[in-house]
């Protein structure tokens, strides 16, 4: 397997687009987290050892934290942050910024194209992840938006896609 064939990335909705919102203790969110962990571990067992994560609020940060937890068991796993801009968290609340910075501190590497938010940088980040992966794990509610666009691009590029039910 070359590097792209061993790389998995993520796409998913921000909390405000999910039924449970920011309440990660909601049973629906807990079920999603459990299923996501199963799918990430399945990917690791299949040989995926590099994970690209956009580190946005919601699904991205949950995936990053799952991988950080699994790195204790699977020591060859790498987590790379694909950050759209250095000030991504500048408009977030303090609790989310602390969570984000905690994840950033534990990454194996960071890829960042822009110093500050630039129109289109989020989709560019998503495209970068798709172009450098062969597997996409997605949390998708069926509605158009950034997650939909990323899924469509992944299909066009022939990635294997796993959809976590919402």
Which value, in Å, is the CA radius of gyration?
15 Å
According to DSSP, the number of beta strands is 6
Query: Share of helix among residues?
Result: 40-55%
How large is the share of residues in beta strands? 15-25%
Overall spatial form: globular
What number is the mean pLDDT?
A: 95
Q: Enumerate how many helices there are, as a single number.
A: 5
Strand pairing plus helix content: what structural class? alpha/beta
The spatial strand order of the largest sheet comes to: 4-3-2-1-5-6
Q: How do the SSEs run, as a string of H and E?
A: EHEHEHEHEHE
- Low-confidence blocks of residues: none
Span between termini: 31 Å
Instruction: Report the sheet with the most strands, covering strand number, pairing sense and barrel closure.
Output: 6 strands, parallel
Structure characterization notes:
The protein is an alpha/beta fold and 166 residues long. Helices cover 40% and strands 20% of the residues. It has helices at residues 27-45, 59-70, 94-106, 121-131, 146-157; strands at residues 7-12, 50-53, 78-85, 109-114, 135-139, 160-164. Helix 1 (27-45) crosses helix 2 (59-70) and helix 4 (121-131) packs parallel to helix 5 (146-157). It is globular, with a radius of gyration of 15 Å. The chain starts with 6 loop residues before the first strand and ends with a strand. The model has no long low-confidence stretch (mean pLDDT 95).
């Amino acid at each position: 397997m070359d590097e792209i064939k061993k790389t998995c990335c993520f796409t998913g909705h921000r909390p405000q687009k999910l039924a449970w919102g920011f309440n990660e203790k909601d049973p629906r969110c807990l079920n999603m987290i459990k299923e996501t962990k199963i799918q990430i571990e399945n990917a690791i067992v299949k040989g995926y050892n590099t994970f690209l994560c956009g580190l946005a609020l919601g699904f991205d940060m949950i995936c990053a934290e799952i991988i950080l937890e699994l790195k204790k068991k699977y020591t060859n796993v790498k987590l790379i942050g694909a950050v759209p801009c250095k000030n991504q968290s500048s408009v977030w609340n303090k609790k989310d910024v602390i969570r984000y910075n905690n994840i950033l501190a534990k990454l194996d590497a960071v890829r960042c194209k822009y110093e500050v938010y630039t129109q289109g940088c989020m989709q560019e980040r998503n495209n970068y992840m798709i172009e450098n992966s062969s597997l996409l794990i997605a949390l998708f509610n069926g509605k158009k938006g950034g997650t939909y666009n990323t899924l469509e691009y992944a299909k066009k590029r022939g990635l294997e896609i796993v959809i976590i039910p919402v």
